[in-house]
């Protein structure tokens, strides 16, 4: 599947927001934080211009789309899925994004970034209820278990995270060792990132 393969920090700097492309605590992440408010390109140091309402909507959509590692066509499809449901479209959109298998692996603390979580899924390292699933956008359902193959547990990045006892698990995920289970659907208040989903709805409703 097509995906962005350019510089990881460029997108974060374009949005002025840490999109989680670098492992927290790494040298690359520290460098990003120093330059986060400087847009990419040769004119970046001139700062950011005041943008229109449409520009705000576009930037918020781009920010969330890039945060979850998706391209426009797939992100728009998730929005259409959310719009068909009764109730708050924004809340449903965020639920669908959080239930992506690559995001669940990331939230479980078994990958330092969503990009690595997506790679682990694509390469067949992740199982759902004991069966291998290689689709990063797979929607994990309540009571489904997410686990790694035994060989995958020897991957250095995964092994290091399994030994980290400081990780705080989201309330909708239960994890014991390398095995996690979705105990309930994620709610909007479970997401700590600074996201304004109403701007995304306004963008697609124009």
UniProtKB/TrEMBL annotation:
Q: How does it assemble?
A: Part of the 30S ribosomal subunit. Contacts protein S5. The interaction surface between S4 and S5 is involved in control of translational fidelity.
Q: Which gene encodes it?
A: rpsD
UniProt key word Ribonucleoprotein: yes
Q: What is this protein called?
A: Small ribosomal subunit protein uS4
Question: A single GO CC term, please?
Answer: small ribosomal subunit
Q: Which GO terms describe its biological process?
A: ribosomal small subunit biogenesis; translation
For this protein, the record's HAMAP family field holds:
Ribosomal_uS4_B
Which Pfam families does the record match to this protein?
Answer: Ribosomal_S4, S4
Say if the entry is tagged with keyword RNA-binding. Answer: yes
| Keyword terms, alphabetized | Ribonucleoprotein, Ribosomal protein, RNA-binding, rRNA-binding
Q: What does this protein do?
A: With S5 and S12 plays an important role in translational accuracy. One of the primary rRNA binding proteins, it binds directly to 16S rRNA where it nucleates assembly of the body of the 30S subunit.
